[in-house]
Structure formats: structure tokens, C-alpha cells
Design brief:
Blueprint: H1 5-10, H2 14-26, H3 31-51, H4 56-78, E1 88-92, H5 101-112, E2 116-119, H6 126-136, E3 140-144, H7 150-163, E4 171-175, H8 181-187, E5 191-193, H9 196-206
Parallel strand pairs: 1-2, 1-3, 3-4, 4-5
Length: 210
């Protein structure tokens, strides 16, 4: 049996992926390195989806493979995280979209790098997003989307942030396969990416890379 986790994620082989993760951890490999192998597989899946080689069914199955692998990794990641949080990050897939694959990957990577993550879930109403931002007081807010219908919800949430006088209290990020720099400008975000690792790097940079 190979121990190429990224290949197992791409080929939708959940049991093989889980066993490979366990094997690498037993050998003492760095949990974050193992997590990055899982993420690499999801990146390839995303590329195939965008190219039309994979469909929504494959995307959802790969997400289940990823979640199963991360479930094994999570206790080990906790052991390498800094005891001091680099900052709070609030994530949401806004109203109109129920996809959470990219958001979940970002959340896992951010936690692994020492951020406190508050995930509001999917199909979240703009007013709930604003209410939670007031409550949590995050340094970063991240919107994720896989379909364009969520853009208007993002825009509405940002307008409500401005009306509430809290828009300048955090950096606003937007990510997902359908997002572009034009979408960033449309909703008034500070940062846009389709790559989870770029989002984490942005947060690390703003947080001072502590």
C-alpha cells in the first residue's frame, strides 16, 4: 500500500487515506506536513472540478475523505498548536450557498497554525453574520462561496457591517472557486483567493507571523 495521501483523496479512497494518515503519524511525521498532503489532494480535486473533469458528487465525496483524515489528525494538531492564539477568525458561507468544503479546509489549516476559529456554517443570514461579528470581535472575517448567488448576501453583510460601524475592526477575506478580484471589489473585501494556503498566509502576515 502506498502512503500518498493526496492520491487517495483524489481517488476518493477514504479507508486508504485514513490508514495512510495513521501510518505517517505512527512514524512520527509532522502532523502539519500530513495535513498539507491532505490539502494538496483537495487542491487537485478542486482543479478537476473547475476543469469539468469532476462533478459535484466527486467534490462531496472528496470532502468526506478529507474530513475523515482530519478527524484522525486533529488531536495531533492540537499538540503542535501555539498555546497563544494568533487571533480570532470568523468564517461563514453566506445565505444562498450550502457548500463548505473550502471553508472547512481553511478552518483546519488556520487552527493548525494557531488561530482561534469560529465557523458559523453554511447558508448564514447577513444579520446573523453581523450579530456574531459583534459578539466574537474577530480580527478576520472570511466568506466562502462555490456559487455566485452568495455574492449578494456577502454584499448585504458588508453594508450592514458599515452601518453598524464595525467594518474597520477586521480584515475581510473572500474565497472559493467562483470568486475573483472583481468580486472582492464588489463586496468591499480586503483579500481574495481560491487557494486555502494563500488565505492562511494572509492571516499569518497580518497577524505578524507570530
Amino acid at each position: 500500500m502506498s502512503d500518498d495521501i493526496s492520491t487517495y483523496v483524489v481517488e476518493l479512497k477514504r479507508d486508504d487515506a485514513v490508514e495512510a494518515v495513521k501510518s505517517k503519524l505512527e512514524k512520527g511525521e509532522d502532523p502539519i506536513s500530513v495535513l498539507n498532503e491532505c490539502r494538496k489532494g483537495m487542491t487537485i480535486v478542486g482543479e478537476r472540478f473547475q476543469a469539468g473533469d469532476y462533478y459535484l458528487a466527486e467534490l462531496m465525496l472528496s470532502a468526506e475523505v478529507f474530513k475523515s483524515a482530519v478527524a484522525i489528525l486533529d488531536p495531533h494538531l492540537a499538540g503542535v498548536r501555539s498555546s497563544q492564539s494568533l487571533g480570532k477568525v470568523m468564517l461563514a458561507t453566506p445565505k444562498g450557498d450550502i457548500h463548505d468544503l473550502g471553508k472547512n479546509i481553511v478552518a483546519t489549516l488556520l487552527k493548525a497554525h494557531g488561530f482561534e476559529v469560529h465557523d458559523l456554517g453554511v447558508d448564514v443570514l447577513p444579520e446573523v453574520i453581523v450579530e456574531k461579528a459583534r459578539e466574537i470581535e474577530p480580527e478576520f472575517v472570511g466568506f466562502s462561496a462555490l456559487i455566485t448567488v452568495a455574492f449578494d448576501s456577502m454584499k448585504e453583510a458588508v453594508t450592514m457591517f458599515e452601518e453598524a460601524g464595525i467594518r474597520n475592526r477586521f480584515k475581510l477575506m473572500v474565497g472559493g472557486g467562483v470568486t475573483t478580484p472583481e468580486v472582492k471589489d464588489y463586496i468591499g473585501a480586503d483579500f481574495q483567493t481560491v487557494d486555502a494556503t494563500e488565505g492562511v498566509a494572509y492571516c499569518m502576515k497580518i497577524a505578524g507571523g507570530k
